[in-house]
C-alpha cells in the first residue's frame, strides 16, 4: 500500500524482476555468487599495489571462508562458489602482446556460459579476484566506449600517486598497440582476463536460464558491457548492485544506461557490492507480490 513512486528505484527493480520472470507475482528465493579468479600478465608491469601472489592467496582465503565475500554471503544466505578453470597459467602481458588467443577467449566464454546456464538459482551474482584486473577492465572499457584513458584509470587496490602515474603510462602504451575501438570479442582477447571473459559468458548463460543477473562493481560492469554487445537482450536481465569508488565505473554505468542500487564508496570487488544489494532485490520482489493495494487494504486513495 503506497502512493505511486513512493518506493523509488525499488519499484523499477520490482518491475524489472517481474519482466524477467514473466509474472506479476515474482519471487526471489535464492542467489548464487560465482567468484572467478585469474592471473594477469600485466601484473609484471607493477600496475597494482599488491604482488601477483595475492590472487592465489585470496583464492585459498575464499575456500577457507575468510574473505569479505564469504562473510557477506553467509550473512545473506547466498551460496558461494569459486571458479578457476585453468584455461592457461594466466594471461600474457597485454602491454606488449594480446592477453590471450582467440581460441582461449572463446573457450573462456563458452565455459562461463555453461556455468551460467547451470546456475540453479533465480538470481546469479558474479565476483572476481585477480591482481591486475582493474588495469585489464580499464583497457576493455576504453576500447569499447572510446572514452579517454584518464577518465577511466583508477587506483585499483590502492595505488599511491606515483603508482597511479606509472599505471597510466603503461596502459597508454598498451592502448596504442591496437586501433580503437574494438568489438567485444577483440577487446577481451587483447586486454581481458580469463575471469572477466568467463564472467561475461556466465552472465549470458544465466540470462538464458531465466535468472536475474546481479552485477557487482567496475570489473563486473565491464564484463557486462562486453556481454551486452555480444548478446543485447542480456541488458534486460542486469541489475547493478552498486557504484564503485573505482574511477572509471561511472563511465561504464553510463554506457550501459544503468542506475546502481547502492553507493557506499566500495572498491573491493569479490562480488561484495552485489551481495549487499541482494536484500534490496528480495524486498523489491516481495513488495510486488505481497503488498496490499489501497483497495484491498481498505485505505482511501488521494482526494
UniProtKB/TrEMBL annotation:
Coiled coil: none
An example molecular function term from Gene Ontology annotations: nicotinate-nucleotide-dimethylbenzimidazole phosphoribosyltransferase activity
CDD domains: DMB-PRT_CobT
UniProt superkingdom: Eukaryota
Catalytic activity as recorded in UniProt: 5,6-dimethylbenzimidazole + nicotinate beta-D-ribonucleotide = alpha-ribazole 5'-phosphate + nicotinate + H(+)
Pathway: Nucleoside biosynthesis; alpha-ribazole biosynthesis; alpha-ribazole from 5,6-dimethylbenzimidazole: step 1/2
Family stated for the protein in its record: Belongs to the CobT family.
Matching NCBIfam families: cobT_DBIPRT (TIGR03160), PRK00105.1 (NF000996)
Record's protein name: Nicotinate-nucleotide--dimethylbenzimidazole phosphoribosyltransferase
Amino acid at each position: 500500500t503506497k502512493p505511486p513512486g513512493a518506493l523509488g528505484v525499488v519499484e523499477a527493480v520490482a518491475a524489472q524482476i517481474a519482466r524477467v520472470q514473466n509474472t506479476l507475482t515474482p519471487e526471489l528465493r535464492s542467489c548464487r555468487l560465482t567468484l572467478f579468479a585469474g592471473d594477469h600478465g600485466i601484473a609484471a608491469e607493477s600496475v597494482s599495489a599488491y604482488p601477483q601472489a595475492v590472487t592465489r592467496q585470496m583464492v585459498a582465503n575464499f575456500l577457507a571462508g575468510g574473505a569479505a565475500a564469504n562473510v557477506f554471503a553467509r550473512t545473506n544466505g547466498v551460496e558461494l562458489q569459486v571458479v578457476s578453470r585453468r584455461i592457461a597459467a594466466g594471461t600474457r602481458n597485454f602491454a606488449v602482446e594480446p592477453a590471450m588467443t582467440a581460441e582461449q577467449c572463446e573457450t573462456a566464454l563458452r565455459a562461463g556460459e555453461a556455468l551460467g546456464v547451470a546456475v540453479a538459482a533465480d538470481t546469479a551474482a558474479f565476483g572476481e579476484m585477480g591482481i591486475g584486473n582493474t588495469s585489464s577492465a580499464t583497457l576493455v572499457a576504453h576500447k569499447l566506449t572510446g572514452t579517454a584513458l584518464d577518465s577511466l584509470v583508477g587506483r585499483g587496490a590502492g595505488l599511491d600517486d606515483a603508482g597511479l602515474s606509472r599505471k597510466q603510462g603503461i596502459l597508454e602504451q598498451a592502448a596504442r598497440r591496437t586501433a580503437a575501438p574494438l568489438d567485444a570479442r577483440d577487446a577481451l582477447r587483447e586486454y581481458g582476463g580469463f575471469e572477466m571473459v568467463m564472467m561475461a559468458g556466465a552472465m549470458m548463460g544465466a540470462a538464458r536460464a531465466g535468472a536475474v543477473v546481479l552485477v557487482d562493481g567496475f570489473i563486473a560492469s565491464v564484463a557486462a558491457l562486453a556481454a551486452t554487445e555480444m548478446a543485447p537482450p542480456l541488458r534486460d536481465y542486469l541489475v547493478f548492485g552498486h557504484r564503485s569508488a573505482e574511477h572509471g565505473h561511472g563511465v561504464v554505468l553510463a554506457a550501459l544506461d544503468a542506475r546502481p542500487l547502492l553507493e557506499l564508496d566500495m572498491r573491493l570487488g569479490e562480488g561484495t557490492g552485489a551481495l549487499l544489494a541482494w536484500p534490496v532485490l528480495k524486498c523489491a520482489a516481495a513488495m510486488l507480490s505481497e503488498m496490499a493495494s489501497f483497495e484491498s487494504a481498505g485505505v482511501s486513495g488521494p482526494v
